Amino acid sequence: MAEIPALKRRLIQEGVDVIDIGAGDADLAPPRAAVEALARAARDPAMSRYAFQLQQYVPHFPRERMLVVASEALRNDRKATVRGVCAFLGVDDAFVPPSLAREFYRSQNRPVYPSALWTVRRAVRRRIPAAKRAKELVDSLGRSVRRSDVAAADDQSGNGAAETGIPAVVRSALEDLLREDVGRLRSFLGPEFDGWGIA
């Protein structure tokens, strides 16, 4: 994604009429119907059933035209995985994107704020959607607090915000709910797929 703005600037400099349909920063709240639809989808267990979702394409696309890649393959051997995707698509598999080594959206890179600062950030985001600068201020304040300080403060406050693991009872329920689907996912990912330890 980092290459897109540079490509756009270059094309404009070359005189190409570029139509940018990017979403940008919203200045209005999203439509209530959209928020409700997303909330319903998030609660729908089928959204986590990958084999179920993939099966919807089988009647429309021959299986040999489908390539399914586990996120673990990208994380553990990005170069080989990207080359495999390129080869599958019939493009030059020697191409290595310059951003290949960079990992995006890692949980450990997400900001960690004291509970009070999270409250302020959520309030700013909810009540003043266009206030990007205010959110950046809150983010910069959050970066000045070390993660260990946040964890210690949250542990002392007893609010449990520092806890990042899934409770055993929830994990067990999710495994039971998804076990069959994860087992069927092997038909898309092959026998080397470990079933994430649940199937």
Explain what this protein looks like in three dimensions.
The protein has 9 helices and no strands. By secondary structure, it is mainly alpha-helical. Among the domains are: 46-105, no CATH class; 111-157. Helix 6 packs antiparallel against helix 7.
The tally of strands reads 0
In terms of DSSP E residues, the strand content is: under 5%
Mean pLDDT: 76
Please give the largest β-sheet. Answer: none
Which class do the helix and strand fractions yield? Answer: mainly alpha
Oligomer: single chain
Distance linking N and C termini: 34 Å
Number of helices, counting only DSSP H or I runs of 4 residues or more: 9
What helical percentage do the residues reach?
Answer: 40-55%
The radius of gyration is 22 Å
Described by the principal axes of the CA atoms, the overall outline is extended
What is the H/E order?
HHHHHHHHH
* Low-pLDDT ranges: 157-163
